[in-house]
Amino acid sequence: MVDIATRVWNHRWKIDPIVRSLVDTDFYKLLMCQSVFRNKPDTQVTFSLINRSKSIRLAELIDEGELREQLDHIRSLSLTRGESTWLRGNMFYGKRQMFTPEFMEWFEALRLPPYHLEKRDGQYELTFEGKWPEVMLWEIPALAVLMELRGRAVLDHMGRFELQVLYARALTKLWEKIEHLRTIDGLRLADFGTRRRHSYLWQDKAVQALIEGLGNKFVGTSNCHIAMKRDIEAIGTNAHELPMVYAALADSDAELAQAPYQVMADWHEEHDGNLRIILPDTYGTPGFLERAPDWLAGWTGIRVDSGDPATGAETAIRWWHDRGEDPRDKLVIFSDGLDVDKIAELQAQFAGRVRVSFGWGTLLTNDFRGLTDGDALAPFSMVCKAVSANGRPTVKLSDNPEKAMGPEDQIARYKRVFGVGDQKRMEVVV
Amino acid sequence: MVDIATRVWNHRWKIDPIVRSLVDTDFYKLLMCQSVFRNKPDTQVTFSLINRSKSIRLAELIDEGELREQLDHIRSLSLTRGESTWLRGNMFYGKRQMFTPEFMEWFEALRLPPYHLEKRDGQYELTFEGKWPEVMLWEIPALAVLMELRGRAVLDHMGRFELQVLYARALTKLWEKIEHLRTIDGLRLADFGTRRRHSYLWQDKAVQALIEGLGNKFVGTSNCHIAMKRDIEAIGTNAHELPMVYAALADSDAELAQAPYQVMADWHEEHDGNLRIILPDTYGTPGFLERAPDWLAGWTGIRVDSGDPATGAETAIRWWHDRGEDPRDKLVIFSDGLDVDKIAELQAQFAGRVRVSFGWGTLLTNDFRGLTDGDALAPFSMVCKAVSANGRPTVKLSDNPEKAMGPEDQIARYKRVFGVGDQKRMEVVV
Q1: What distances in angstroms separate CA B385 from CA A425, B38, B183, B367, one per listed residue?
Q2: How far apart are CA B186 and CA B407, in angstroms?
Q3: CA–CA dist B349, B366 (Å, integer)
Q4: 3-class SS at B355?
Q5: Shortest CA distance to A290 belongs to which of A312, A313, A323?
Q6: What is the DSSP letter of A330?
Q7: Which of chain A's residues have a Cβ under 8 Å away from the Cβ of B9?
Q8: How far apart are CA A199 and CA A221, in angstroms?
């Protein structure tokens, strides 16, 4: 029996929307949004798309009209009743009412603010300006739309069986990774792959594969919509945008030096347990830890998101030792450019010395490398970052100078203020 | 939207039938059936399942109740109006009304006769007795049911993603074969894989892959139901059961020696063009050709179905030369245990010297080798053959003694009558 009603319904879509929900975003975005909504609601911020992979000429691959349609569709979204119920009623990290009634009321009324789109030199200039808690929610859907539209441009030219075989190969590749991971004792791994995923459906499939293949070694997903749909844990804490904007708002070098700790202080007040995770690399991990107040050493763990991950973890372990904490009680979350071999290596190196966890991103949800001619579906390095706050440029130094951003004079100033010396350059794949 | 009606409908099936149509069978079965219906309608024949792969203990793998359910379901089938219309109205090999009104009326009224099933030594003894035109139609569905039930017994223990990955791997494997085949100039290839297919759906998928991947290098399928569904050519001519039964009916050695040519004479009267394909190996190819009447050299081509295929083709080419025919006008159809490398090799060796065509069977529709633990889904060598006719045992010698069958004294007699000497043993994989 052909289901005519479904067919008619499906054909009524004018476009095939890439992002269909405001909670199809990373959980930490909502946590940070609530924090910003409470602490810095009126800060004017600009987010901007940054394609680090210059050889991928997005404006030549993606039709501007289609991109606008997708972005316009996102602006038409608002929180559904079911999504609101899930956010209000769910237990996150063992805590109920993670989101306050004030925040939820604001979120329920929210529509995303306008975007600004231009083509330049084969790339899209895509920016979002407005109040921080509003524009910050553009980051994840904007990235997901661009990555998926670029994928669709390639898929459009493939035959029906070619498509089946493409996904068959991608699924096999994914499963072989999972078969490797399941052999790792004590593994704890979460999906962090929303922003640069191949597509929503593919991320959802990857999560289902992790559920079946890893059992309780899989601890959850950063994607709220998929966490809701698959009834699993939503995972995440905080990101670089907090210290970057706090730092940009500083009126003096002294305030600047304190800004990253002010972020942590605000967060400390709002959250405990697994949400107290330090992200130390925004202006260099060694200096950040060295100058950190003692109460920060009491936090649950640290997220290693740039530089050599083993070096980052060893730095953290030494720091906890120095501050009289037992590293074996501490959590280290690796989340930078991971794939199975690196995960196995880090687990072997650190299991037993600290509690280890992995946030597996793009190479979980978008490892289409080697599956098409000219590798046209390989993921690439694209971010969407806060580039200014109240008219001042933001700066990120990172533990890998390839990931640094900001005007040169400001980078120099930040390096001086945070005492950052030579850093090791590492290629950024995704 | 959930389609509740479809769901309810699907759940109403008491079993999941493996064979759902009387035309889910090989086209040559119907051609031969019409010939038998005309020439030997009352011959009493017994068909029997023969599992050449003794290590596969089918009676331990397949539940007897399930097997009976499937076979009983096949007995409930009759030709549908649409199937009858297709057989009556379609053009086969450029000819309309391939099937006579008398045959179609008989076929429309047909239900398959009873089966006899017993377990012995871990194997099933499955036999079909009755009038030749009726019991002969059991061969293909019986084999398909056994192969698919054995597969289901393995699949039942697999997780949802394991299943997805299994089919992803099988599809990738199939597509890589097709990508290899599409590079072969002048290739002409048909699907001959009904009897030992993984499943109906998988055979149908393989055919769709061939349509997309090979274009007009793919010339059709032996499966009538799939030919009808996909609107492509149904392919096939005749098989060993004709000479085997004709030979068993012979009342003297002299008649026996003539029996294979009598088959060809009856066929010659009924068919022309691409249907005049010699199958010479039943009692040894060299002797058959040597003693063949001259009119047989005028036939369109030859099918090489046992022994070393290159040797068989060279023998045929020499024979055509000797009989004053130009081999370049003749068709050689290779159909024994083919896979891509062998196809490429034979095409390279014979293209230009004869017209070459391939009937690709089990390693097209059931190459699940290497995809499961213990290779539990690998295809194996199982046939369903006429073992007696009017109370006399049948004999097959073949060009490969591994494929010979019949009582020993009769094999000796046939070897003497047909002048078959030493033969080369070749492993039978599928």
Answers
A1: 71, 21, 37, 23
A2: 43
A3: 27
A4: strand
A5: A323
A6: -
A7: 1
A8: 15
- Best A171, A182, A218, A230 member to test B by mutation, with max B CBs in 10 Å, is A171
**For residues A332 and A318, what is the distance between their CA atoms, to the nearest angstrom?**
13
Q: Could you give the domains of chain B?
A: 164-365 (3.20.140.10)
Q: At what angle do helices B160-181 and A160-181 cross, to 10 degrees?
A: 130
Name the phi and psi angles at B16, rounded to 5. -100, 95
Is B10 at the interface with chain A, CB within 8 A? no
Instruction: Give the Cβ contact number of residue B321 at 10 Å.
Output: 12
End-to-end CA distance of chain B: 45
Quickly tell me which residue has 């979002």 as its tokens. Answer: A128
Per DSSP (E only), the strands in B4-110 are 44-51
**For residue B225, what pLDDT band results from cuts at 50, 70 and 90?**
very high
- Residue B52: per-residue pLDDT: 92
d(CA B117, CA B125): 6
Would you state the structure tokens that stand for residue B271, as one six-digit string? Answer: 């068919």
For A211, the enclosing helix (H) or strand (E) is helix A200-214
Whether A172 and B169 lie within 8 Å, measured CB to CB: yes
Measure the CA dihedral A403/A409/A413/A419, to 10°: 50
Q: How confident is the model at residue B366 (pLDDT cuts 50, 70, 90)?
A: very high
Closest CA to B234 of B87, B77, B20, B32: B87
Phi, psi of B95 (to 5 degrees): -115, 135
**CA distance linking residue A178 with residue A343, whole number of Å:** 12
d(CA B285, CA A226): 64
Backbone angles phi, psi at A239, to 5 degrees: -140, 180
Report which secondary-structure segment, H or E, holds A340: helix A340-350
pLDDT band at A382 (very low <50, low <70, confident <90, very high): very high
User: What is the average per-residue pLDDT within A203-223?
Assistant: 97
- Both structure tokens of A28: 């930490």
- Asked if B312 and B278 count as a contact pair (C-beta separation under 8 A), the reply is no
Alpha-carbon gap, residue A87 to A92, rounded angstroms: 9
Dist CA A428 CA B1 (whole Å):
43
**Best of A4, A12, A164, A176 to disrupt the B interface by mutation (most B CBs within 10 Å)?**
A164
Nearest-Cα residue of chain B relative to residue A172: B165
Cβ atoms < 10 Å from Cβ of B395 = 26
- Dump the DSSP string for B262-294: HHHHHHHHH--GGG-EE---TT-HHHHHHT--H
